[in-house]
Design goal:
With about 450 residues, the protein is of the alpha/beta class. It has 14 helices and 22 strands. Strand 4 and strand 5 form a beta hairpin. Bound molecules: S-adenosyl-L-homocysteine (SAH). The site of S-adenosyl-L-homocysteine has 24 residues, from strand 18 and strand 20.
């Protein structure tokens, strides 16, 4: 197998196989993961096992990688899925090495010896939605006129004729024609370099999507969908893959079309998550890495650039990276009580996972001394309970016990609470990991509007 397809990696069941490149313990999980990341799968096993394993994931034939089964004695090669990604050609190639006939059942493929829906690398079908009727007409006996040059079409068994009612047109990608193709015309865009690359090889690249990979790092806002920017929403809806911490993916689950693949990950392994998102994008997929709030504030955007700088994999060079801003927790908190961040302010995370408490306490002290309003992120967690008390102690050395403090929990989510207190009243019971805390500067004021409304604001002059 590896002689015929040198890029193939062999996986074998642990304790049952000796010569595999890698071993796995759980067949279903392993196969499903390959499928979801668009990796071609060749199973040396019964077709039924692959079918049952992948059945729950079959939602979008445009995104299926090739999946095929080979009988363990090499007597049968059965393409199962991924007709649009070249599974039949892969089956032919393997079958010719094994000297058997591939079990190809796709009508268009058998009759025309080509798949119009999955052109070779470098050709892009502009109007796939018209292809179904086009193919039905072809199968019903219509002839096709070819405009432009393409060996893969000339060498096929398509009924090509200058009088054809149907048309296939090859257009240069750089020559932007705006006219929309009619339904009896399939249009392929081709890049010039394809003239030399046209021969199909079954390196990994053949199966990868032909479009440039994209990675959008988005912030969905604190929680509520009406706090999400239209740009983020659009990027989420157009993606092929979402990557993120489960809680954040759940917050936007309502927007997920079934064909979009979710890749959940643990909150702690941010660099792994960033790397995985880049790897997926390098395969040509449209990946969205989801953070809450703003992606550049204690979130995934820095993690991506950190891995990009440190690992600098060559396949990442062409990825189109975009960062889409979101409303950060401190902004939503400030807005809910007025304008406490209306003058100079800073943000400090109280988490000592990525920096030492010494650095944190020094920053709090300097910010207090500089009379900045402060937003505390990550104030308390199950394992970190004493930091907030310490922070309060430091603040009280520089700021009045009467300083207004805003405690905003679960902003934009179920159970939102916003409380205004004085610094001397602050206790760790006021906060958890879903709370952002705003500490006023010496100028921050609590005011009354009529009898019932209270606001907190920091004046713009000093
Ligand atoms: N990127 C996020 C911050 C992530 S760090 C942003 O820009 O908002 C996680 C911390 O953000 C939490 O510990 C909490 O302090 C704050 N936070 C995030 N979402 C919040 C919400 N909906 N309500 C209150 N605080 C929130």
């Amino acid at each position: 197998m590896q002689i015929a397809l040198p890029e193939t990696v062999v996986y074998g069941l642990i304790d049952r196989t000796q010569s595999a490149d890698f071993s796995y313990a759980n067949f279903g999980e392993t196969v499903r993961e390959f499928f979801q990341t668009g990796t071609p799968i060749i199973g040396i096993c019964a077709a039924g096992i692959l079918i049952r394993t992948l059945a729950p994931l079959l939602t979008n034939k445009w995104q299926e990688p090739p999946v095929l089964a080979i009988a363990e004695d090499g007597s049968a090669v059965v393409p199962l899925l991924g007709g649009l990604q070249g599974v039949n050609d892969l089956a032919r190639q393997i079958a010719s090495v094994l000297q058997v006939f591939p079990a190809i059942t796709t009508t268009g493929d058998i009759r025309f010896k080509t798949t119009l829906l999955s052109p070779p690398l470098g050709y892009q079908l502009v109007n796939p939605d018209d292809a179904k009727k086009f193919l039905a007409d072809l199968l019903a006996g219509e002839k096709v006129k070819l405009i432009g040059e393409a060996d893969w079409l000339k060498n096929s068994h398509l009924p090509i004729s200058a009088e054809g009612k149907l048309t296939i047109e090859i257009r240069d990608k750089n020559n932007l024609e705006l006219a929309k193709p009619s339904t009896d015309c399939l249009v392929y865009l081709v890049e010039e370099r394809n003239q030399t690359e046209e021969k199909l090889g079954f390196s990994q690249g053949v199966f990868e999507s032909q479009s440039q990979g994209q990675l959008a790092i988005v912030g969905t806002g604190p929680g509520a969908i009406n706090w999400m920017s239209p740009e983020v929403r659009e990027v989420l809806e157009k993606a092929t893959d979402w990557v993120g911490y489960k809680t954040y993916l759940d917050l936007v689950e309502l927007l997920r079309k079934p064909e979009i693949i979710r890749h959940e990950s643990d909150n702690r392994v941010e660099l792994d998550r960033a790397e995985m998102a880049l790897d997926l994008a390098a395969k040509g997929r449209s990946v969205v890495l989801v953070s809450s709030g703003d992606p550049g504030i204690y979130a995934m955007a820095s993690a991506v650039f950190e891995v990009l700088e440190k690992k600098a994999k060559p396949e990442w060079e062409a990825i189109a990276i975009q960062v889409c801003p979101g409303i950060s927790a401190m902004q939503a908190a400030a807005a809910s009580v007025g304008a406490p961040l209306g003058h100079d302010f800073c943000a400090i995370s109280l988490s000592d996972i990525l920096k030492s408490w010494q650095v944190i306490s020094q920053r709090i002290e300097l910010a207090a001394q500089a009379d900045l309003a402060i937003a505390f992120y990550n104030p308390v967690s199950k394992e970190r309970t004493w930091q907030l008390e310490k922070a309060k102690e430091i603040l009280l050395q520089w700021r009045s016990p009467q300083t207004p403090v805003v405690l905003a929990r679960n902003l934009g989510r179920k159970g939102q609470t916003v409380t205004v207190k004085l610094l001397e009243q602050l206790t760790i019971e006021d906060a958890d990991m879903r709370t952002v805390i705003l500490i006023g500067s010496s100028k921050t004021r609590i005011i009354q509007q009529g009898k019932t409304n209270q606001w907190v604001y920091t004046p713009r002059h000093y």
